[in-house]
Design a protein that fits this description.
This protein is about 65% helix and about 5% strand. The protein is built from six helices and three strands, in the order E-H-H-E-E-H-H-H-H. It has helices spanning about 5-10, 15-25, 45-55, 60-65, 75-105, 115-145; strands at about 1-5, 30-35, 35-40. Strand 2 (about 30-35) and strand 3 form a beta hairpin. The radius of gyration is 22 Å and the shape is elongated. The chain starts with a strand and ends in an 11-residue tail after the last helix.
Length: about 150
């Protein structure tokens, strides 16, 4: 058994974040030692999975669903594959952005605004910004229960 301060030290996760993780259902304490929460040693692998999920870009809600409440996590392989595909797209976008910035840094055009590569980079950035705003709106709507509403009022 680990009290919250021992768990924070061993995991590198702050006590406040551990309390939040418990609040949102990612981990569960098994009791208290005085005023301190106490956790089973098996919470450490769960915290590792949470860290991995966050590093991969999953939301805490998605991670919670994959971890489940008890026992062995139920990790959706299709979801992992989709996230890997998304990361591939993101890597491609970032690589193109890096290459464009390197070009702009050494471009011989009189002005960056006269450089076709830099102009293309600006168009991509603007389009991406619009897509990101739409994605945030969709994610907000989905997280607030608007995804499953029926149109017939029922």
């Amino acid at each position: 058994m680990l009290d919250i301060s021992e768990l924070a030290r061993k995991s590198g996760v702050s006590a406040s974040k551990l309390r939040y993780y418990e609040e949102v259902g990612l981990i569960r304490s098994v009791g208290r030692n005085g005023l301190r929460r106490v956790f089973d040693d098996r919470v450490l692998p769960r915290l590792s999975l949470v860290a991995l999920g966050q590093a991969a870009g999953f939301s805490l809600a998605e991670i919670r669903d994959m971890l489940g409440q008890e026992g062995t996590p139920s990790i959706d392989r299709d979801m992992l594959s989709a996230k890997a595909d998304s990361l591939d797209r993101h890597i491609k976008e970032l690589s193109a952005l890096r290459d464009g910035l390197r070009h702009a840094a050494s471009c011989t055009a009189p002005s960056h605004l006269e450089c076709p590569t830099f102009q293309r980079l600006m168009r991509i950035a603007l389009a991406r910004q619009g897509a990101t705003k739409r994605d945030r709106k969709r994610d907000f709507a989905n997280s607030h229960g608007e995804r499953g509403r029926r149109d017939d009022g029922a």
